[in-house]
Amino acid sequence: MARGKWVCSYKKTTLLVCFVNIAVALYVLRSLYGSLYIYSGNVSRNVVLYKPDQIKKMEESIQIRNAYKPVELIKWVNALEGEFSRDNVAVELPQHLKQKIIDEILQRLRGLNSSSTDNAKEREAVESWRKEKLKEVKLALVNGTSNSIIPHEEAGMLVRALESDWVVLCEEVGLWISDQVANEVHDDKPEGEEEFEEEVLPGRPLSPECHAELHTDYDGAAVRWGLTHHKDSAADCCQACVDHARHAKEGEKKCNIWVYCPSEFGCHSPDIYQHKHQECWLKYAEKPRINFKDRYSESYRNSHPSAPVIVPWVSGVVSS
């Protein structure tokens, strides 16, 4: 009898627990349904209902705006914006075309006397190559792909690059071309005046104590890290080196070498950093030594494919 009562009480307890669970579940479902109903009611109350006359007035307003919309003027403006953007965006040459141009310019420069430092002759050689190449690619455009080894699409890009985008292309391959008038073409050179052969650096003129050397990269221990030290011009970079030497404390290394990047496309260096425009490195060396001068060697460029033809840096050893 005692065992039967225990079994009976166990069943009652189980039924009671189940009933409580069902009640809780129903209460939760009712709460969820109630909150959903309230949310849907709020949403329906937020909907704005317009009267027929209001809708008619809005449609008439839209029609009036569309009727007075300057469609032709908008078309002309869009066309002009498209032409302006095309005219001001430089042609991006494929890498194999850039490499071909670099190799051809380098081959033309090899024909000059390697010991010569005559910048005018180098400019003349590069300009001669540009004119010959431009004539070749224009002929390829006229003849078409069947009569030329230069594909029609590449010829069109080369014409644009060699004419309107020539300065940009020179910067990309590391070749500096100074802005000067070719007096021998116009025959307007004053009699007895010496030819201007030096390249012009942007910014104020450099003082004699800077001993600036174009296309030169000097070695030395950095006393001011150039990655975070930018100057507006090479003259400012030189002055920073002079000021550093004057204010250096006893026992500190005094700056006697400045190295500046004048190229807007940055300057190449055989390290892991990307050296940008206007970087100014202040260095010290007991016996200043040149890393690179004028042009990178062919063997160096073979091992460093990203290196340009011409050394882009400008450096100087300041007067002690």
Topology diagram in text:
Blueprint: H1 2-46, H2 52-67, H3 71-88, H4 95-110, H5 119-143, H6 152-162, H7 166-172, H8 183-186, E1 212-214, E2 216-218, E3 221-224, H9 234-247, E4 257-260, E5 280-284, E6 290-293, H10 298-303, E7 314-317
Antiparallel strand pairs: 1-7, 2-6, 3-5, 4-5, 4-7
Helix pairs in contact: 4-5, 5-6
Task: Write up this protein.
It is a single chain. This protein is α+β, with helices and mostly antiparallel strands. Helix content is 51%, strand content 8%. It has helices at 2-46, 52-67, 71-88, 95-110, 119-143, 152-162, 166-172, 183-186, 234-247, 298-303; strands at residues 212-214, 216-218, 221-224, 257-260, 280-284, 290-293, 314-317. The chain has a 5-stranded antiparallel beta sheet with strand order 1-7-4-5-3, with helices on one face. The radius of gyration is 38 Å and the shape is extended.
Low-confidence stretches: 177-197
User: What pattern of helices and strands is seen along the backbone?
Assistant: HHHHHHHHEEEHEEEHE
SSE class: alpha+beta
- Helical fraction equals 40-55%
Please report the distance between the alpha carbons of the first and last residues.
118 Å
Global Rg: 38 Å
* Continuous helix count: 10
Mind summarizing the main beta sheet?
5 strands, antiparallel
> How much of the polypeptide forms β-strand, as a percent range?
5-15%
Give a count of the beta strands, DSSP E runs of length 2 or more: 7
